[in-house]
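Try this one yourself first.
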């Protein structure tokens, strides 16, 4: 251990009595390090007694025979391993245990269950810092013989080391500072040398810590957020070791510094992604169940609307209930969009009407300091988009505009129609020639430089503080616009605000004809006594579908599971259309039933319905080529989908 050990050949010793944890850590670290696993502390100590190399030791706190703390004490009693970094593993997040471990010379506590990526990143830094610190200590012992060799060797190390290294004298004045440290701290090394240690590092290397260094002890890794001279911030992980002289005693310390800003950002994004995934699963489940309930409510209110006399005093209450239920359905669609389990429902949209309906919401959302203006061009072309996603896109742009106006300002949303020629498609925007409806969102905010504007649609790119933005909002807007066949442009100048334009292609005449809904609800011309097999396990929805289809002139057979529905088909009953829920009990879902039915009865028409659809099921549906009716639905929605399905 008296020579430099490269990170790739570093030896990591792991003691954990849980086989699964031991296996996971061994597999995780083996690609980078030489890993030596042990099921208890005693076997690890016997290994060290043979003089084997150890560059980092991981100890489970609770082990049979001797605890991790007891093993650590015995390791520290062996002079050859006194400075080897020790990392404790524990399932108990105890401040008392952590304090005890640090007092024994431990450098870190990792709480189970742990993230493999975070563990790997943290151990890598401990190995690097440990190797660098121990190497410098070793060199300090050798340099007592020849000052010239000491100076030349240390200068080479400081110059080449990717880790920032600073040495201070006994009173805290910086004696040496390598280029990496200067780069991390945002200053020239020559400007730092000779000045007293200051800032976040000096706040830590003081008092008891300074006394520990004077006594020859090592200060384990700690993190600090430092302010650079240019005003930017950097997060560093540091450790400090005492520089001792046999004659004079304490002569100063060496401080190892590593910029971990990017690692901390990755850790935050990982934590945030896990949180968003958990919230997504929760909201998806709630939205799916709520959609089933809304299907019953909206469907029955819709049926009541058909039978109530126009003069009935109940009609006003029923109409209010129906409108409220439809707004609730829109809320569930937004929840499903958040969890990415919404099936896109493209339809003809009047952009002016949609944007106009959002103005009140935007005014309330953006606050009193932001004035919202709307500038409409009349006679816009219709566009074929998912209105819910377009709502979300405009809201995202408005929210970002508000953040760019911290002292308030004006947000102007304009709509227009534009025809782009081939000559206009050349250049940076790369918008194909054609007819477009353009939504322009303009703010009077702080603006942004071109290098930022060029990256704002990149996933996870954000100029906001970590807890102020996810960096995915504008990326989602970009993806939605591109998926809709459109384009998006950004124009910005520092101090002059930002303008973002959404180019949505004009709907073709064929698209417009395909999207027209019947003005009044009548029986389907194609029903003609056709028989529909309903597969639905929810009795209220089952009853609702039966009433709706009977009203439309169909004969109805009901099954409460996919297996039941398959049995009906196998019995030879004449069925023209299979109308099945996607999620059905009994081991076979609606997609499995549809796949089987399509292969055995090719002429059978199939329509599926669901309240939500995850990526795997969506892929299956697209692969088979099935139609989907999204819950909650009204009788007119069901009629339209059946017309499309039957053809």
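Now uncover the answer:
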């Amino acid at each position: 251990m008296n020579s430099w050990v490269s990170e790739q050949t570093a030896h990591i010793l792991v003691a954990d009595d849980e086989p699964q944890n031991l296996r996971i850590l061994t597999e995780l670290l083996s690609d980078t390090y030489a890993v030596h696993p042990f099921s208890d502390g005693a076997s690890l100590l016997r290994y060290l007694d043979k003089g084997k190399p150890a560059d980092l030791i991981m100890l489970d706190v609770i082990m049979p025979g001797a605890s991790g703390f007891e093993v650590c004490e015995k390791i520290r009693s062996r002079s050859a391993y006194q400075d080897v970094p020790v990392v404790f593993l524990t399932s108990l997040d105890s401040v008392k245990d952590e304090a005890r471990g640090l007092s024994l010379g431990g450098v870190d506590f990792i709480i189970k269950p742990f993230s493999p990526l975070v563990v790997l990143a943290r151990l890598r830094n401990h190995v690097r810092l440990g190797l660098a610190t121990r190497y410098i200590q070793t060199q300090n012992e050798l340099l007592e013989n020849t000052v010239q060799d000491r100076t030349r060797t240390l200068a080479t190390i400081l110059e080449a080391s990717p880790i920032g290294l600073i040495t201070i004298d006994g009173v805290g004045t910086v004696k040496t500072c390598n280029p990496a440290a200067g780069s991390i701290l945002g200053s020239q090394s020559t400007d730092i040398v000779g000045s007293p240690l200051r800032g976040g590092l000096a706040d830590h290397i003081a008092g008891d810590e300074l006394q520990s260094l004077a006594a020859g002890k090592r200060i384990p890794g700690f993190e600090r957020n430092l302010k650079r001279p240019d005003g930017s911030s950097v997060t560093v992980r540091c450790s400090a070791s005492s520089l001792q002289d046999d004659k004079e005693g304490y002569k100063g310390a060496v401080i190892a510094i590593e910029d971990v800003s990017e690692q901390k950002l990755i850790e935050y994004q990982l934590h945030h992604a896990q949180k968003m995934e958990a919230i997504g699963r929760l909201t998806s489940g709630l939205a799916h169940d709520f959609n089933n309930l809304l299907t019953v409510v909206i469907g029955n209110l819709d049926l009541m609307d058909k039978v109530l006399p126009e003069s009935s005093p109940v009609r006003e209450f029923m109409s209010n209930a129906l409108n409220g239920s439809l707004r609730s359905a829109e809320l569930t669609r937004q929840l499903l969009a958040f969890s990415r389990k919404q099936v896109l429902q493209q339809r003809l949209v009047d952009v002016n009407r949609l944007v106009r309906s959002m103005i009140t919401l935007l005014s309330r959302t953006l606050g009193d300091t932001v004035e919202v203006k709307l500038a409409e061009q009349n006679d816009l072309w219709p566009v074929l988009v998912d209105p819910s996603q377009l709502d979300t896109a405009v809201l995202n742009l408005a929210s970002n505009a508000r953040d760019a106006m911290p002292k308030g300002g004006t947000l102007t949303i304009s709509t227009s129609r534009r025809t782009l020629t081939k000559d206009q498609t050349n250049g940076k925007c790369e918008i194909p020639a054609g007819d477009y409806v353009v939504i322009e969102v303009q703010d009077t905010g702080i603006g942004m430089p071109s290098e930022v504007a060029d990256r704002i649609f990149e996933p996870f790119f954000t100029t906001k503080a970590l807890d102020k933005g996810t960096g995915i909002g504008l990326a989602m807007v970009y993806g939605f616009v591109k998926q809709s066949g459109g384009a998006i442009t950004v124009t910005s100048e520092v101090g002059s605000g930002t303008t973002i334009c959404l180019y949505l292609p004009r709907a073709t005449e064929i698209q417009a004809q395909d999207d027209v809904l019947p003005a009044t609800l009548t029986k389907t011309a194609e029903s003609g006594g056709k028989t529909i097999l309903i597969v639905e396990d929810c009795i209220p929805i089952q009853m609702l579908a039966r009433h709706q289809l009977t009203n439309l002139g169909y004969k109805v057979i009901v099954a409460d599971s996919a297996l039941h529905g398959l049995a009906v088909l196998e019995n030879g009953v004449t069925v023209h259309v299979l109308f099945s829920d996607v999620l059905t009990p009994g081991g076979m879902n609606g997609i499995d039933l549809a796949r089987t039915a399509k292969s055995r009865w090719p002429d059978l028409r199939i329509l599926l319905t669901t309240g939500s659809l995850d990526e795997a099921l969506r892929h299956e549906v697209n692969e088979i080529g099935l139609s989907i009716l999204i819950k909650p639905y009204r009788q007119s929605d069901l009629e339209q989908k059946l017309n499309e399905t039957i053809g």
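Discussion: Residues 199 and 435 are 59 Å apart (CA to CA). The chain has 23 helices and 22 strands.
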